[in-house]
Amino acid sequence: MIKSMHMRKLAIAVVFALLMAVIVPAGQGKSLSGRRQRPQKRKAHSTKINCLPAGTTLDEVVSYGANGRGIVTVGKKLVQLKARCRNLKLVDAKGREIRFHRPSCWGNPPADYEEIQQRENGELQRLQKRYTVIVFGCNPMIQ
After folding, report:
1. Is the pLDDT of residue 58 over 80?
2. Which of 37, 46, 80, 84 is deepest in the core (most CB within 10 A)?
């Protein structure tokens, strides 16, 4: 009796599989209801960017959130800016070139850290006049 029940279930599964193969032929793009399925929408923005400056990767952290949450990577930031490559340059949605700025980060600052910060802030202001600038934040674990 148990053997015949298993055979019956197996036969039903085989018949169902054959019916599915007949009803929905491969590549037809139709659902069980007979309606044509909509093609998959393309992502609004691709994260494949091949014009990043040397030494910069998409998985580098730009900013840190509290307790490691809310971490923003270069890839996420570029998606937010709707970045793309144009003439081998990285540009935002408005066509403005994107540059990266890495301020110095110290656990124990050097004696002339104020001069270094002043110089870096001046460079950042100069860059921001002409480019869209992504500024890397310091890892709070070092400070």
Report:
1. yes
2. 84
